Amino acid sequence: MRDPDPRTPDRLRPDVLTASGGATPCKRAGDRRIFVAAAIGFCAALWTYACEDGTTEPPQYLPEPATITVSPATAELAVPGSTVRMTAQVLDENGQPITGVEIVWAVDDRTVAVVDASGLVTGIVDGTATVTATVGGMTGAATVMVAMGSAATDRTALVALYEATDGPNWLNNDNWLTDAPLGEWYGVQTDGSGRVTWLGLYGNDLAGPIPPELGNLADLPVLDLGHNALTGPIPSELGSLSNLTVLSLQDNALTGPIPPELDTGCPK
Fold first, then answer.
1. Cα 115 to chain center, whole Å?
2. Residue 147: CB partners within 8 Å, gap ≥ 6?
3. 98 near 138, Cβ under 8 Å?
4. pTM as predicted
């Protein structure tokens, strides 16, 4: 491009702008550079001010849940009314735990069990239900079985009775706490699946409180603990024994009223 003729007046030269009123000339290219630099500086100052003011935070990365694991994966509630606490571990795509997220708990069959906002599950009736924990679009699940006990559940209840009532000093404690089948423990009878169907320890020097674990003997129709030295209240958990037809607790030192769960309206 040929240089402009120096004799051409400034107001006609293409590389110089002359402001009206005789203002100092400025070059176009330089003017654009000054404007861009000023705009960048203004934006930076505005962002800094906003962050320092606390009204605007820089964008943060929020991890997305990739897996949800519910524990325990399977829970057995020996009788209706029993509870179990569920927990959920939320992991991102890198296997790192995500904390502080809202977990939505639900159960597929509310006639069998219910779950609250903290993950506490309560059994209602016999059956099986699935409990779920959901975060965003991800869900984890666990299985809850209500009143589907086993011989192991019954053994735990009998051990609790032995330990609570001075078992080592009973008149007869043959095979108790051994590996022998429960039906071979003194005073115990079982069915074909090993569930306790008779517990008779009348006059056997049991001394102490009746443990609430006896309420887990779901298949028990006969409980005879009369003529011993049992103390304290009758546990309300015995009211969970839906198959119980005979309950004998006479001639003990028990205190308190008959729990309403056991009150059938019979004369007292």
1. 9
2. 77, 78, 79, 80, 123, 125, 126, 127, 218
3. no
4. 0.49
Do 228 and 252 meet the contact criterion of CB atoms below 8 Å apart? yes
CB-based contact 154:217 (threshold 8 Å) = yes
Instruction: Look up residue 185 and give its amino acid.
Output: W
As a whole number, mean pLDDT of residues 51-80 equals 75
Dig out the tokens for 34 from the structure. 């000054």
Q: What residue has token string 């589907």?
A: 148
Give 153-176 pLDDT, tens digit per residue.
899 999 999 999 999 999 999 999
Summarize the confidence of residues 81-105 as an average pLDDT: 91
For tokens 């020996």, what's the residue? 78
> End-to-end CA distance of the chain, in Å?
121
Residue 165 CB partners (closer than 8 Å, separation 6+): 206, 207, 208, 209, 210, 211, 228, 230
Alpha-carbon separation of residue 162 from 54, 122, 156, 175, 198 (angstroms): 65, 28, 10, 12, 16
Cβ neighbours for 104, distance < 8 A, ≥ 6 positions apart: 133, 134, 135
